[in-house]
Amino acid sequence: MVRTTAEIPVDHKDGDVVAAGIEATKFRDAKAPIGTLVRYSVFATRDGSSYSDPATATSVVLPTPYDFAAAPGTTDVSLSWATPPEAAGVVVTETAPDGTRNEHRPATPGQLAVGGLRTGTKYRFSAKAVYLLAGGERRESAAVELDATPRGSIRSVDDLRVEAAPAGHAARWSSVVGYTIELWALPITAHVTPATRITSAELTNLSGRRLTLRPGSGGSGETVREFDALPDVSLLVPITLDGDGGLVGTPQVAGSAPSVQKPTSERFGDELRLSWEWPKGDYMVEVGWRVGSGRSTKRVSRTSYNDDGGVRLPASEVSGEVTLATVVRAGSQEWVSAPISVPVSGVAPVVKYALSVKRSKFGGKGTVAVSVESAQFRDSVELLTVLKEAKFMPNASSDGTVVDRRMVDLSSGRSSFSLDLGKVVAPFWVRVFPSSSGVRVEDPPTSQMRGQ
Question: Which of 36, 30, 153, 156 is nearest to 87 (CA)?
């Protein structure tokens, strides 16, 4: 095999002999000249002295650029590459997502900065080496390509929020422009450190699984993605992708946990005793109850529950429904399930009152002094004082005229107040009613409620 520069050799020695005595039908020329039109001629021989006419073919070796790399900025991309010394230059083509193309001819060998790009948008860049053949003919190599997305500095997600959604859960976080965020579900006992790097293999070794996020929306720099309901409580970790793995964000506990079973409540004197069947697992239970217009909670462990034989609350403090919620803790984070209501057995706390009703002989003006007390209730309660001018007492707050509505403080167990009823016609009645079902009001003797 003989190599010449374009012309056909006269014989098997007319040119550079690149191979001789080969029996194979293929040969690779590892030292072919770059950017030059060459002709390869193959001579056949049987005895090494007589040769056939040559079979010829031409070729031009045009190596592509190599070490092609991109360094994205916020709105720009810096490209770099290398070429053989025979190359006369490089042509770089920038392709936007909509197919728009811009061609660049770098003035500085081996580098090009492309600006005016859109942050978070992926662009494709291709580079071809340019060669000048004998006679001034211009040829280009095949293209090498890469994708680059302008983006800001990488950061971890530190404001992940997980909420219930109709089809499972919805996750929200502040967008990291130019970077993709993945959510991984890890066991709640797993330990990861925010703002550190972790690989996909390390996440998998922690028994983690990547969640499939449905396409979502968001606004004002916020990303919203929904995913299927979690079968249990997990540690959700946002990962800002960068190569194989990425940057760990601040995790959140989310999912679902079993509720308590067969909750019951019983009144024993001044106590309200709660009991239930515990769910399997290392959980706590949050007991919640209404106290007047406010609400109190108490965390109960399985150990303290067993030691106390349930949960005991002062009956005087419970003025409304009682709820139970399962609590899952993971380090400094916790997750609380939706509360379930517990039917409170027995009657509401009793509030008693006494009346001193008077009517002046001259002018017919009435007054009433009201004294309120409770042995159980130690909070404020709203009471309605109702006046009815008739032979029969009012049987509800709507059966008469509400002459006073006030919050009565029974934190000390007692309270009193006086009212001017104005001019009244005998016979008349004064009766006190609660504004809600939080307490049960016990009437005094009818002689105290009737005015003459």
Answer: 36
CA-nearest of 199, 210, 197, 200 to 247 is 197
Computed from CA positions of residues 246, 332, 259, 278, in that sequence, does the dihedral angle turn out positive or negative?
positive
Q: Are the beta carbons of 405 and 347 closer than 8 angstroms?
A: no
Q: Where are the beta strands (DSSP E) in 134-255?
A: 138-140, 144-148, 161-165, 168-174, 181-186, 197-198, 209-210, 214-217, 222-227, 234-241, 246-248, 252-254
Res. 271: pLDDT tops 90: no
Q: Is the dihedral angle over the CA atoms 200, 206, 210, 216 positive or is it negative?
A: negative
| φ, ψ at 22 (rounded to 5°) | -90, 145
* CA torsion through residues 132, 134, 136, 139, sign: negative
In angstroms, the Cα distances linking 288 to 51, 278, 311 are 104, 17, 11
Cβ–Cβ under 8 Å, residues 148 and 173: no
| pLDDT tens by residue, 390-399 | 999 999 999 9
DSSP labels, 15-57: SEE---S--SS----TTPPBT-EEEEEE--BSSSS-BPPPEEE
Q: Which of 252, 270, 450, 298 is nearest to 376 (CA)?
A: 270
pLDDT score of 177 more than 70: yes
Cis peptide before 427 (omega within 30 of 0): yes
Q: Two tokens at 127?
A: 């580079």
